[in-house]
Specification:
Structural class: alpha/beta
Order of helices and strands: EEHEHEHHEEHEEHHEEHHHHEEEHH
Strand order of the largest sheet: 1-4-3-2-5-10-7-11
Largest sheet: 8 strands, mixed
Number of strands: 13
Bound molecules: guanosine-5'-diphosphate, manganese (II) ion
């Protein structure tokens, strides 16, 4: 009966061959990638990195989501590379489009202004739908519903180092809800009024603000202004239940109604980051300093030589972004009262 609710064509699944001799008990977790068919050849490289450095040992599932139908080539090629079950889903129209309260003419005018000012992706409609989807809906997709933890993977990323433990179980056992590798300052042109909306939300919903939160990481003046720090959301390992919580649901609905996904170009990175910083106690956020990661144009290369050798890292430590001036991770260390690794200074 349930299968009649959705057209069968929206979802496909391929099952990985049984890994004989191994009865490893996985966490309830999946990789998740939003992509278009044309992204396939950028994506295969990401998948190889993730499989070679991590997933060949654990065989976690992988969910692919698209606003269009995935073609056979996309399904065949990704399935051939992934050692867990692979699932393909189509995003419902309500999660990829304009809500009815958005004035589309006004949105078009904004895009034209942003085009003239050469704001990155400022003139793009699809990028805005993508950011709104990643902010409010990826965790609601029917293929994601049964999972608790996820790791977001984008096309064209690199994993520089081995990952020699189960990161999902690490999240579970450590009680973490959000994990990141890189953080930096957002372009203010994309979010000029976001903080004004956040402050309105805080006033309306003080009950959602966690006591021991990371406000001091995202604000230099106790919440009067936003310092533009955000976790870079092209990499995320997180707890889906956080995005499904009343606090985040209220927050997303509020921001969605404010209209900034279309009247500005609010990214899912600042939206997720502000939520994680305000609604979670700070010990629920984890910095994966040991996951060597690259997404154009920034690198997380583990600061300590010991780690780089042990984990067979292939990155140049001087490319490590995390101690550089445009990174917000030094501030994160300060707010968390974490001791900086001894080599940080050489890499700044
Ligand atoms: P950037 O990292 O901010 O430059 O943005 P990307 O181009 O990497 O897009 C972010 C993620 O959304 C990637 O996983 C893309 O594959 C995906 N994506 C971007 N635009 C679209 C789109 O229009 N449709 C679909 N299905 N995926 C998209
Ligand atoms: Mn990207």
């Amino acid at each position: 009966v349930k299968s009649e609710e959705k057209p069968a064509a929206d979802v496909t699944t391929t099952t990985a061959p049984v890994d004989e001799g191994k009865d490893y008990v996985r966490a309830n977790a999946t990789f998740v990638t939003l992509a278009r068919n044309v992204d396939i050849w950028s994506l295969v490289k990401s998948i190889r990195h993730v499989e070679d450095r991590f997933n060949r040992k654990y065989h976690y599932d992988w969910v692919f989501l698209n606003d269009d139908d995935f073609d056979d080539n996309f399904k065949e090629v990704t399935s051939s590379l992934i050692s867990g079950n692979v699932k393909f889903g189509k995003i419902p129209k309500e999660h990829w489009g304009y809500p009815d309260w958005i004035d589309q003419e006004k949105a078009a005018e904004v895009r034209e202004q942003m085009r003239q000012k050469q704001v990155i992706y400022g003139d793009s409609v699809s990028y805005r739908h993508m950011c709104r989807f990643e902010s409010g809906f990826f965790f609601q997709h029917e293929l994601m519903k049964d999972y608790k933890y996820y790791w977001r993977v984008e096309p064209d990323i690199i994993l520089h180092c081995d990952i020699d433990y189960d990161v999902f179980k690490f999240m579970e056992q450590g009680g973490y809800d959000y994990g990141f590798t890189l953080s930096l300052y957002e372009y203010i042109e994309t979010i000029p009024t976001l903080w004004k909306s956040v402050k309105k939300f805080i006033q309306e919903h003080p009950e959602h603000i966690a006591e021991d939160n990371l406000m001091n990481w995202i604000s230099d003046d106790n919440g009067i202004t936003y310092n533009k720090c955000h976790f870079w959301s092209n990499f995320e390992i997180g707890n889906l239940d956080f995005w499904r919580s009343p606090a985040y649901s209220d927050f997303f609905d509020f921001l969605d109604y404010e209209g900034g996904f279309f009247y500005e170009r609010w990214g899912d990175a600042p939206v997720h980051s502000i939520a994680a910083a305000l609604f979670l106690p700070k010990d629920k956020v984890h910095f994966f300093d040991d996951i060597g990661y690259w997404h154009v144009p920034f690198t997380n290369c583990p600061t300590n030589k010991e780690d780089r050798l042990r984990l067979k890292c292939s990155c140049n430590p001087f490319d490590n972004f995390i101690w550089k001036g445009y990174s917000c991770t030094p501030r994160y260390y300060d707010v968390m009262k974490m001791k900086r690794p001894s080599e940080w200074h050489e890499q700044s």
